[in-house]
Amino acid sequence: xxxxxxxxxxxxxxxxxxxxxxxxxxxxxxxxxxxxxxxxxxxxxxxxxxxxxxxxxxxxxxxxxxxxxxxxxxxxxxxxxxxxxxxxxxxxxxxxxxxxxxxxxxxxxxxxxxxxxxxxxxxxxxxxxxxxxxxxxxxxxxxxxxxxxxxxxxxxxxxxxxxxxx
Length: 166
What we know:
Strand content: 5-15%
Largest sheet: 4 strands, mixed
Helix content: 40-55%
Order of helices and strands: HEEHEEHHH
Structural class: alpha+beta
Low-confidence stretches: none
Shape: globular
């Protein structure tokens, strides 16, 4: 249910990001770091540590999260997609999700093998994720809902085209 509430909110920011970066050909621009509203210091405001998965490295970042600056939006502004809708501990680079998504369209989808391959490559570079099978589970979630968001974006574009024809 949480994904169903969050994903529609990401469609417009995602399309803006793709427009700004020429569909990922240019670097992600500077993002807003956190909420600037002074009345947002209530109990809903918190720090969140997130591990970011890139093809060549892992990075840990800290987000300042509140109701007006949700986690998923902050991550998307950085070119990342969360593995969970509200409090993700892991997030994946959009370029990588696009690559894997396209790969799985032309070949048999196998998140387990992809995650094991990526885990091995990262481990050789000295990056290790704690826990057993962490990357596969979180990566699978991110990939699944990334695809749902992409389908929503396509539907939004199709709807705009259809309404302009009328």
